[in-house]
Amino acid sequence: MSNYENTFLYVGPTGFDVDLDALGVDGLVIRPPVRRGDIHALLNEVAEPGRLIIVDGTYFSFPAVGHIELRQAIEAGWEVWGICSMGAVRAYEMRNLGMRGYGRAYQSFFEYEDFQDDEVALLHGDEPPYLSMSEPLLHLRGAISELLADGRISKEIAEAIVGELKAMWFGKRTLPKVRDMLAAHGSVLGISEFESLVARHRIKRQDFLQFFETKPWLKFA
């Protein structure tokens, strides 16, 4: 059993505008987006194993957290969770190696045949509050699906836009860019209307909040 008084949370842009001090976990230690070597350093820093919650991580400006160091944490008795972003990616990749995944971002790897890890990626600042400069394709998929369900775009247009976005570097998937793409296909949305549409589909943020509301780790206690 993990030492529940020893919980480390690696979070960046997904936790933007969230009161991290009010998440309701005793002894929670907040760390920035995880980088290669951070978990290895933590294992040398903390003697007693506890819980790791990987939310955000680097993969563009710095090397991504390694599978080996996460595996070492699991083998050393740490309870390792991955959600939302880099955490969901590693949880999916290591689902048979003891890492636990949670949420719709994690489940998307099972639901979509063409789902790739860059769909949860976004460009953001390197320092708090990690301001986002692009939008994850995961969120844009949901917004486009809503427009399709409402009859505001056709299936062909929806597939064409998602296909174009998939072929695009994740840092270029910005709200103005997608709004222009929709307008080029005849679907003109106001700025506030479009921003509200995308906000309803910010799955990573929803997963993050629900994870701490439901505390799924308690069933393993």
Q: What key phrases describe this protein's structure?
A:
5 strands; 221 residues; alpha/beta
How would you characterize the largest beta sheet?
5 strands, parallel
Instruction: Summarize model confidence as the mean pLDDT.
Output: 93
The residue fraction in helices comes out at: 40-55%
End-to-end Cα distance, whole Å, is: 7 Å
Q: Give the amount of beta strand, in percent.
A: 5-15%
Q: Categorize the overall geometry.
A: elongated
What series of H and E elements makes up the topology?
EEHEHEHEHHHHHH
Q: Number of helical runs?
A: 9
How many runs of DSSP E, i.e. beta strands?
A: 5
| Class derived from helix and strand content | alpha/beta
Please explain how this structure is put together.
- The structure is a single chain.
- With 221 residues, the chain is α/β, with parallel strands linked by helices.
- It contains 9 helices and 5 strands.
- It has a 5-stranded parallel beta sheet, sandwiched between helices.
- Helix 3 crosses helix 4 (104-111).
- The chain is elongated and about 60 Å long.
- The termini are close together.
- The mean pLDDT is 93.
